[in-house]
Write a structure and sequence with these properties.
One of its GO terms (biological process) is positive thymic T cell selection. InterPro entries: CD3_esu/gsu/dsu, Ig-like_dom_sf, Ig-like_fold, Ig_4. GO terms for molecular function: transmembrane signaling receptor activity. One of its GO terms (cellular component) is external side of plasma membrane. Keywords: Immunoglobulin domain, Membrane, Transmembrane, Transmembrane helix. This protein has 66 residues and is α+β, with helices and mostly antiparallel strands. It has one domain. The chain is built from one helix and two strands. Strands 1-2 form a two-stranded antiparallel sheet. The chain is elongated and about 80 Å long.
Length: 66
């Protein structure tokens, strides 16, 4: 597990911060191509759903309310 001790000095004052975190065993790496693929797939799915709703509601033009 990655660890680190970071120091910060300002004049006479000295502060430290110890960092320790655990990495999951079955995580996926999320890099730019992965995020781009997720965004593009989301946009395509949204457009497909919008076209489907438009086509379904577009055929009911003859049934207007009074």
């Amino acid at each position: 597990d990655p660890r680190g001790l970071y120091m910060c000095e300002t004049g006479e004052k000295r502060s430290s911060l110890q960092v320790h975190y655990r990495m999951c065993q079955n995580c996926i790496e999320v890099d730019a191509p992965t995020i781009s693929g997720i965004v593009i797939a989301d946009v395509v799915a949204t457009l497909f759903l919008a076209v489907a709703v438009y086509c379904i509601t577009g055929h009911d033009r003859g049934h207007t309310s009074r």
